[in-house]
Amino acid sequence: ISDGVSLYVDPGMESQQLFVLQPDLGSIVVVVDVEVPVYPESSMIPSESPTSWPSLSSVPAGSPTVYPTLHPLSYCAPFMNSNGSEQNCLISVCGSQNLVASTCVEFGGQSVGDTYLTLRNANGTVITSSDDYGAQSCSYLTWSIYVGSEQCETYFIEQSCFGMQPCSGTTAYSLETILTPVESVPYAFEIFNRSNGDIEPLSLFLYNESVGFIGDRRGSVWSIGDQGVRLLVEAKNDTEDAVRSITGDEAGNVYFTQRLQCTIMKVTPDGVISVAAGIPHMCNQTADGAVANMSSISGPWSVYADVSQGYLYYTESGEGDVIRRFSYTNGNSSMGGVLETVVGVLYASGYSGDDVSASTALLSDPRSLVMSADGQALYFVDFGTRRVRCASALTGMVTTLATYETDISSIAVDFNYNLYIAVYGAYMVYKRNPMTGLTVPVLGTGMMGNGPFDVPASQTSISDGVSLYVDPGMESQQLFVLQPDLGSIVVVVD
């Protein structure tokens, strides 16, 4: 290093990175502790190490701390009041590279008004997109190709204005090399196939590696285990509600949603079926404090059991868009727990921005819902705004983690807070790193298909409208991808 350097460490950050500023050289160096295992090349440091600082991509969306750009920038042609069709910025991304593009000033870009960036591949398929960066109206997106991809691929950045509103700006972008251990390349295996159409798997819940339950798109519930696949709850007819979400508690009870009937159903280990919440075919929202199984609810989509606290969390939409919960632990009492709204406003819907309290945040048709392993964060799809959002129990605030141009079909989260996202029309599943905010593909080719399997997941084509499942409490952290159109379940493992 040079002489007369300055030092900085944020004592509130657990990572404890040391920043060394060299004014004589116009340079900033970061020093981190990294446990380096033996890889094929000694220079390969795991990109997902919590102590690594991969330059620009380490800044999570909404971070109150803004770091400067530490690598060379290129610029797209300036745009103004564009719908994006004639403002495409062609780029080439190669294996082991990470693309960062932004109209935010702190990342080298410029913007006036509400800008919107979309990244498409050569076929025009949307790869990722960005509307608001944190509380700002500028845009910020990232994209990476794993090590092992030897070819370069052509993409284009589509520059536009959100909602066709007036805007202008200049997009800055950069490409940096990322190093990922070759051992971490995910592979795809098909573990369930009912191509004869008798089961259309839409939701999944696993008690352990050998016992679980499948929710069918036509309304049935199936158990899976050592005795094979068995029918647990039979759909009454072909128009029965799709079982969009299924979960279970520590006593072996299974819960699933029936959106059209406005109920959450319960099945005991003995096969007894009852209503856990709602009144069949009464789709009206009820005030907090009412008994769950004696009160009407509105359009439940997703349900999740927090076994550590004894609560069922579920999404509710229709008269109002909210996330609610009720206790399922009432001893021998036939009465259910009382309804409690935890995110959103009863009898209201919409979008009220980010970094707002959970009790005042407006939601728009909340759907897929999951909880972190420690119970401190609820992740959900705000379907009406095409956002993946997070409600933190630590801060009591709601923030946006990702925004897409098309509808989001499903999400899942693992033990390490990695978020998995499936988007309609993309034919891919993405993984978002919580430390860096970096989003990378983990499954799919970008083209509709079915397989091949037993190959790297980037070579496996999937269908549209898939559902995702990860048990955040399991160390194996396998990602299950359910394809109702194909009667198939695919597992992705490293």
Q: Report how far the terminal alpha carbons are from each other.
A: 39 Å
Please work out how many helical segments DSSP would assign. Answer: 0
Taken as a percent bin, the fraction of beta residues is 35-45%
Physical arrangement of strands within the biggest beta sheet = 37-15-40-39-38
Molecular shape: globular
Question: What composes the largest sheet?
Answer: 5 strands, antiparallel
Give the beta-strand count: 40
Mean pLDDT score: 82
Task: Flag low-confidence runs.
Answer: 35-70
User: How helical, in percent, are the residues?
Assistant: under 10%
Model description:
With 494 residues, the chain is mainly beta. 0% of the residues lie in helices and 41% in strands. The chain is built from no helices and 40 strands. It has strands at 6-8, 18-22, 27-31, 74-75, 79-80, 88-93, 97-102, 110-113, 115-121, 126-130, 140-144, 153-161, 167-170, 172-177, 187-193, 201-206, 212-216, 221-225, 228-233, 246-248, 254-258, 263-267, 273-277, 300-306, 311-316, 322-327, 340-344, 356-357, 366-371, 377-382, 387-392, 397-403, 408-413, 419-423, 429-432, 439-443, 455-456, 467-469, 479-483, 488-493. The strands form ten sheets. Strands 37-15-40-39-38 form a five-stranded antiparallel β-sheet, with no helix packed on it. Strands 28-32-31-30-29 form a five-stranded antiparallel β-sheet, with no helix packed on it. A hairpin with a 2-residue loop joins β18 (221-225) and β19 (228-233). It is globular, with a radius of gyration of 23 Å.
